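Milestone 3.1: sequence recovery, worked example.
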């Protein structure tokens, strides 16, 4: 027994279901939308890499770009020390380190996503991922060093006679 669509009672559907239905419903145009495949239903590692690269570039450009971080962080620490807001400074740069750690986790999670089939594409993806991991790790390490140094300075000043 076959039932047609018009005989079925209408059910409320989400907008995502509507969009999927629209994309799979035959169109009266010369080139209807193709049916979604498993490949385009899941996040592609290349798409993640593009997004993480953009976010990493923004993250690394903080304090005048990574090459200037040592100077910029030192100057901002001295300013915070003179203005008596070292705790806010520490929280601010700690937040920045956490953002970098999140970006690293995004890169790590790319292993669970669809990877390119072509060897050269996979190699390029891996090289770019490695470059970003190195840059993010260097930035996070520098922030942690600055935080430790500021703690050492605070300890040293507390025991001065």
């Amino acid at each position: 027994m076959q039932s047609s669509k018009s005989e079925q009672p209408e059910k409320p559907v989400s907008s995502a279901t509507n969009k999927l239905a629209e994309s799979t419903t035959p169109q009266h145009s010369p080139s209807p939308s193709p049916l979604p495949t498993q490949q385009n239903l899941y996040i592609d590692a290349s798409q993640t890499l593009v997004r993480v690269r953009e976010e990493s570039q923004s993250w690394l450009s903080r304090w005048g770009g990574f090459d200037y971080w040592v100077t910029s962080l030192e100057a901002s620490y001295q300013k915070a020390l003179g203005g008596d807001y070292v705790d806010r400074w520490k929280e601010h740069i700690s937040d920045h380190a956490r953002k970098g750690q999140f970006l690293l986790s995004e890169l790590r999670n790319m292993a669970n996503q669809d990877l390119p089939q072509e060897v050269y594409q996979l190699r390029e993806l891996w090289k770019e991922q490695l470059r970003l991991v190195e840059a993010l790790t260097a930035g996070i390490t520098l922030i942690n060093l600055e935080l430790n140094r500021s703690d050492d300075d605070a300890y040293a000043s507390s025991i001065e006679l």
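Confidence is low (pLDDT under 50) at residues 1-41. The radius of gyration is 25 Å.
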